[in-house]
Request: fold
Amino acid sequence: RKEVEQDPGPFNVPEGATVAFNCTYSNSASQSFFWYRQDCRKEPKLLMSVYSSGNEDGRFTAQLNRASQYISLLIRDSKLSDSATYLCVVSGSARQLTFGSGTQLTVLP
Amino acid sequence: DGGITQSPKYLFRKEGQNVTLSCEQNLNHDAMYWYRQDPGQGLRLIYYSQIVNDFQKGDIAEGYSVSREKKESFPLTVTSAQKNPTAFYLCASSPISMGTEAFFGQGTRLTVV
Reply:
């Protein structure tokens, strides 16, 4: 089993739609959680950290469920510019970052 | 401006040659990482270092070597033992403390010709 698993995608949604991605992790000792965004042929960039209480940044909402060991990302009112690959990232006790394989999102006009 | 710099952006290698990818950061981060990304795939950890003169193998270290002689620098050598080196290589750094993000360089695209 992979340490971090994501929805395989791809997700193709119309502009204005709400889309949700899930990610599960296997190491119960994992300490920190993030969502990164990667545009085609570019480096990943931090989208948002994920906190136990859940957190929101504009149209983006991240949730963490430690009991079930999953993380989610909700994007409301999708924009064309949201088209990218979204990477789930988990930091364990050894402080190394483990990346999921990513979920590709295409927002259609 | 603080950041992390990888060079070169594109690199072509003949089979059987060793090549070294450069990664430099001026963010004063203790931890540095090398990842490999294949088309349509996620990032796989090659090596990481949390302190100068110390580094650990990641999931796919075979055929690669690194050094960490300075805090700012973490070069990656792709040796001839790496049988399928064509990929996108990403270097990242982060503060040693937990709960902090990683910052990435712009990547090096290595192609074996």
About this structure: Chain B touches chain A through 26 residues (CB under 8 Å). The radius of gyration of chain B is 13 Å. The mean pLDDT of chain B is 91. The CA atoms of residues 60 and 108 of chain B lie 17 Å apart.
